[in-house]
């Protein structure tokens, strides 16, 4: 099944009842798939919105009204949605947002890229907030993480982003859809009219600075819980490794290909793959640095996640970087050659910052 | 025995309005609340207040309310209404909200014929931010960002929202009213009631524009402001029903019945 369609099917199976979106390459199969599938679901609503901005605010309305809601886009479209994502975070409304990244900045191109890491993991819009960001690297994870995203969004009442790229969206792989968990979301959060009771307000505007500060700390406490409980990562051939590649998503697939070749050549290289990009699996990465001192970060960008790796390792290891921005997808052979050049030159693998 | 002849609508909280003296918002709020009471829909109504002076509308309406980002009310209302089609959903928007930053969301909600009601407060000026030019400012109108008066060559023309939206086949009912006299207030109340009733009847998108005084930013007394609406504003924005598809359809039907009888 194709990656974009997998996301759509996983969303439907997770009970997504509302989708709004605006066409943008390379994720058009998601709205197309949702337009067909949501017709078949009782209570399902699909809207092709007039803009990315309208889509995210439709999602906010639908979410407030109690529907599991999703929108999807690609890099430039996600920039437009940031107003709404900030608002969802402020109003503590659950929603799932898919970003099938493409080359940037600006209109960039439509090739797979990883240049939106900062935007995704630092909140993305204005104000003090974070978004849970999950970075799948296979069809199976597209399915699993999309379903998990809905659960996490409900549990923490916060927007959750699936951060993948055009490669993930377009590739075909077999997939098994897991059984969805039953939805746990208190009725009291849903805005459906006051009935005979007290009326409800959902708002992000808090004019009193002290009250606003408390709201910020309240959100922050929630983010701290998420940071503690919701990190995910994969260790690949790290047991005997002398050098650790750090990569996510499509980058991690390339890294695995490179590692296969490097191992055949007798180089002990492993992979640390963050699956949750926010929260970043800081402690898990730091644990590796207790016995391994060489790290090489590979991203399809000029270097964004590498900053989180530096923050995690705090000078405990040497950190190299290899980046291919702009929609270039390097081969495993290229990455293997980069690793080989640096593997033995331990002195050479030096974090350019430190 | 004493009889209570005037009181606060049930759909209104007891909070004192923060609006300036002579402002039209408080009148519009009250009219909406009265209509909600009258139609007995308080328990199923969801309101979407805008950014702008009315951002705090949820402090006054005693119905469920969810704040929208600037201009996005109709998109949010669309999401709510599609998920809960049996609820009554209205967005409350100013001229900047509807005709500038949110023109796309408003226009397309209207074009889709969303079964929602939009209450559009047009006071020809940005109120909350301190009197800047609005998309509906009159040519020649002095504002803090058009100190020499609005000029069409620089600033374009005042946007006639009702006339433009009437052209969209998706819209069912569009009327422009004002709240500058007791008679006009009663008329506005009727228009709001009709708009909500049409939504309840599932007849489609309804919009009531209210020419609303803003003495503070117009730098006029409340009385002069009411006069300005009559003498200037309503010349640019003529009052009246712009579109009433359900009424036209029923007129047609009546005519059809007659011709059949004849």
Describe the structure.
The complex is a heterodimer of chains A (354) and B (262). Chain A is of the alpha/beta class. Helices cover 41% and strands 17% of the residues of chain A. Chain A has a seven-stranded mixed sheet with strand order 2-1-3-4-6-5-11, sandwiched between helices. Residues 348-354 of chain A have low confidence and may be disordered. Chain B is of the alpha/beta class. In chain B, helix 7 links the parallel strand 7 (171-178) and strand 8 (205-211). The longest helix of chain B is centred in the last third of the chain and has 19 residues, at 182-200. Chain B is globular. Strand 7 of chain A pairs parallel with strand 2 of chain B, so a sheet runs across the interface.
Topology, element by element:
The complex is a heterodimer of chains A (354) and B (262).
Chain A: H1 3-13, E1 18-21, H2 29-40, E2 45-48, H3 52-64, E3 69-73, H4 75-91, E4 95-101, H5 117-121, E5 132-134, H6 139-156, E6 159-165, H7 166-170, E7 201-202, H8 209-229, E8 233-236, E9 243-246, H9 249-264, E10 269-274, E11 276-278, H10 282-288, E12 294-299, H11 305-313, E13 318-323, H12 332-343
Parallel strand pairs in A: 1-2, 1-3, 3-4, 4-6, 5-6, 9-10, 9-12, 12-13
Antiparallel strand pairs in A: 5-11, 8-10
Helix pairs in contact in A: 1-2, 1-6, 3-4, 9-12, 10-11
Chain B: H1 25-38, E1 45-48, E2 64-66, H2 73-83, E3 88-94, H3 95-101, H4 103-111, E4 117-122, E5 125-126, E6 132-133, H5 152-155, H6 161-166, E7 171-178, H7 182-200, E8 205-211, H8 215-218, H9 222-236, E9 240-244, H10 245-261
Parallel strand pairs in B: 1-2, 1-3, 3-4, 4-8, 7-8
Antiparallel strand pairs in B: 5-6, 7-9
Helix pairs in contact in B: 1-7, 3-4
